[in-house]
Amino acid sequence: MDTYDIRFPTSRQLDGSDAMNPDPDYSAAYLVLRTDAPDGLAGHGFTFTIGRGNDVQVAALDALRPHVLGRSVEDLSADPGLVSRALTGDSQLRWLGPEKGVMHMAIGAVVNAVWDLAAKRRGVPLWKLLADAEPEWLVSQVDFRYIADALSPEEALELLRRGREGSAGREKTLRAEGYPAYTTSPGWLGYSDEKLTRLAEEAVAAGFTQIKLKVGADLADDIRRCRAARAAIGPDVRLALDANQRWNVAEAIEWTQALAGFDPYWIEEPTSPDDILGHARIRAAVAPVKVATGEHVQNRIVFKQLLQADAVDVVQLDAARVGGVNENLAILLLAAKFGVPVCPHAGGVGLCELVQHLAMFDYVALSGTTEDRVIEFVDHLHGHFEHPAVVRDGRYTAPLSPGFSAEMYPASLATFAYPGGTFWTDDLAAAGTAGDAEPVGAAGVVAESVEVTA
């Protein structure tokens, strides 16, 4: 198991900036599972961070290495739940969570790498592996501990059996038409109004029927930016808002109501992702504006409570925040049980590449619909991946290459590994001649704007 600390200096263009995270440097704690099998295939996985602390996340990956080395490739490919159960079951590492935080994100990265390897060995993309799997096997991959009061294995099995009905026709439609997307690319908080307007107009011209703006730092600025966005996209394109956990409950209600005149479709992460009752209160107060959350929800248990409390209109699972594919299967099943649409969080480093598989499986073999369902798309850093996500006419095209679309180019790993990759060493060397300049970015140095796509 090889691990890498990969960082991109996105803060220098304010890409990804929002009210809570003003200067993110998109980063990935990345791993490769290599085997001695004659096929030469490897499993790739990662979890997403935004700069400082990525080294801590890599250390968490390294702590899991003893649970992975020496295991049978055949066994893990046939039952990825083996490694999921082993990693979440280490009692001493579990003490650091349990099932949340840095260790749980590391577990998700390793589990996702196992699924990547399993799908490659099967010769199919991950969404296809999941959609074709027997319902009984999929149920065996889910940990029902702590959620059985809301979703039993028997109920999950019935949902999956019903989901298989008509799946062949939906797969054909998916391959022909893709899956609906929305874009956050115009909406970063650090962008000027002119850049926001230009990118919003370009998004509509590219076929997107929903865009998203970051809000929450200054109400007057948000009113001005929402006015500019609505003017750019017209009345028929959905406008979603994202506060990135900035507000207290009462503040979230007041602020959302103040922006209601711009007809926002949802308000995302209006308060702490752990505040179930707060989300319920906000949802009741701001309707018909929908409440969406999930990218920082740490496990299936919190999702269960959000659904039980009628606290959320849109579930936004994240491929790399929870315990990998296995736990995301649980979350998809919970959302299906409660009849709440799933609109995955994406962007960052590689999240678009991953979540498309989960949403497409959900459409083909579980919920059976794309109504009111969209996958987030952010046009950053895709060129570093062997099989990048492709969006045409506002829709994700179904990936056809075997695996989980997680594999980065070796050259990208060598260039952006921190601190010894060629980009960062050159950057440090350039800073040595910059005099008394203020430090900026992941390396703590000043540099000119840098192109970070391959």
TrEMBL record:
Cofactor: Mg(2+)
Mandelate racemase/muconate lactonizing enzyme C-terminal domain mapped to chain residues: 193-289
Domain of life: Bacteria
Keywords, in A-Z order: Lyase, Magnesium, Metal-binding
Coiled coil: none
Enzyme Commission number: 4.2.1.68
Reaction catalysis annotation: L-fuconate = 2-dehydro-3-deoxy-L-fuconate + H2O
Keyword Transcription regulation: no
Keyword Lyase: yes
Stored Pfam families: MR_MLE_C, MR_MLE_N
Protein name: L-fuconate dehydratase
Species of the source: Streptomyces anulatus
